[in-house]
Amino acid sequence: MKWSDEDIELALRDLRCDDPPPGALAAVRAQVLEQTQRRRAAWWRWGLAPGLAAVAVLAVVLWPRHSDAVLPEPQPPPAPALAEVLVPAPEPQRPAAPVRRKTVKLKTPEKQTEFIRLFTDDPDVVIYWSLETKGGAE
Amino acid sequence: MTGEQADSFETLLLAQERKVLRTAWRILGSLEDAQDVAQEVFLKLHRHWRRLDPVTLEGWLYRTTVNACFDVLRKRTNDTELTTEPAMPPGEDLERDERRRLVAEGLKALPERERAALVLREIEGLSTAETAAVLGVAEVTVRSQISMAKARLKRWLEERR
Lengths: 138, 161
Description:
The complex is a heterodimer of chains A (138) and B (161).
Chain A: H1 5-16, H2 22-70, H3 80-85, E1 112-119, E2 126-133
Antiparallel strand pairs in A: 1-2
Chain B: H1 3-28, H2 31-48, H3 57-75, H4 94-107, H5 112-123, H6 128-135, H7 139-159
Helix pairs in contact in B: 1-2, 1-3, 2-3, 3-6, 5-6, 5-7, 6-7
């Protein structure tokens, strides 16, 4: 077979129309689409989980500030029932101190005796009438 | 990626798959390796296609394909068996079909840079400037590579007589 430059160029142009077998094209397409779908699924799996974790962490960090902003009014005093709960812990018991007896002397008013002398017609007869007072009461 | 975006990527894949696989096939001389390269190119395209300018998309595809082919050729050992071109089905012009088959075989004997230049300009129909842009060389280099490739191919074909 004799080869001229034109023969080679004609053969190269013919190769332009020489497509790969359709089965080969379909196989490539199927592989590519499968891989892209798998990547998309992996993105959801590995991208969504850290995203949700980050949202949860942010929610925890920002929650107290958020609640302060929402509650501008002062809180009412704690309910009585709550007060019982908030009883301070009992202090450690100390040894019982010795009881001191105190003797308290009550002041009693002194007894005062008064006499009333009563004169009679008879000069020899004198009547003394004693009056006793207790605590100011006569 | 939404359903619409997935559809448009699939549309893009359908429009470009023939071109990418054919280029890789002619540069590598093996349909199996070409399929691997085409798959790699389209997975790269899937990552970048939203950022790519449609005007430069074709150049990007050719450049990525040629670079992936060069990577395969560098890794390929000398004893790698290349598939031989299948015999053409009987047609009206048997001699023309046979010439086409022999030229496809002869391409495998060319140095990789010359082969890529010849495939892009003579088979894919790119201009010299476009071929130079894809290969990252000057236009004069492309002209020189194509001229040497044709001369080498002719020698190889005449030795086969």
